[in-house]
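User: Reviewer 2 asked us to show a designed sequence for the structure in our supplementary figure. I'm pasting the structure tokens here. Could you produce the per-position amino acids so we can include them in the response letter?
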């Protein structure tokens, strides 16, 4: 480790560093001569002034920080009112937000229930439509008439055909299913 020796006289201050050990792998001389650095008195005076100015600046900053901390400990009446109003506004906004979210969730649940009901109604409608299709099928009608109702097909002597002299027409106001 290096050792610092300081010698001073009236005009100059000498600083001397002496090496007590050798470091590195390219040492040329085992015991190197001691180096002496001379620092002029002007330089040391300038350094002292800089140090003094830095101390004064640091002290001024500490005083300013202390004043700011003291100011922060006390709140004015206007600041208290402003903070209270801000808190009330934030609470109002939060409550409204929660109400809107609740309304959205309930609407989504209602939509989901209505979609499920619509699917059930469509399935029921398809079933009824298939029943109507089967009831208008002539083969189905013939089967029900002969098996369930005991009807028989008419013979040739029971059917009467007639000729119409005027043309007949039917007015259709709606689609026939």
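Assistant: Here is a per-position design you can include in the supplement:
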């Amino acid at each position: 480790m290096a050792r610092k020796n300081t010698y001073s006289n009236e005009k100059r201050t000498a600083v001397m560093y002496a090496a007590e050990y050798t470091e590195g792998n390219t040492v040329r001389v085992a015991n190197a001569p001691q180096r002496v650095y001379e620092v002029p008195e002007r330089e040391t005076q300038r350094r002292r002034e800089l140090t003094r100015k830095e101390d004064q600046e640091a002290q001024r900053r500490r005083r300013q920080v202390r004043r700011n901390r003291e100011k922060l400990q006390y709140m004015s009446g206007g600041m208290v009112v402003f903070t209270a109003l801000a808190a009330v506004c934030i609470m109002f906004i939060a409550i409204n937000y929660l109400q809107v979210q609740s309304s959205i969730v309930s609407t989504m649940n209602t939509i989901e229930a209505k979609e499920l009901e619509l699917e059930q109604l469509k399935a029921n409608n398809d079933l009824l439509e298939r029943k109507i299709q089967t009831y208008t099928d002539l083969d189905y009608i013939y089967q029900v008439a002969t098996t369930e109702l005991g009807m028989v097909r008419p013979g040739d002597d029971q059917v009467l055909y007639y000729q119409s002299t005027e043309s007949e027409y039917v007015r259709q106001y709606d689609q026939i299913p």
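For the response letter, you might also mention the following. The chain is about 60% helix and 10% strand. The two ends are 110 Å apart (CA to CA).
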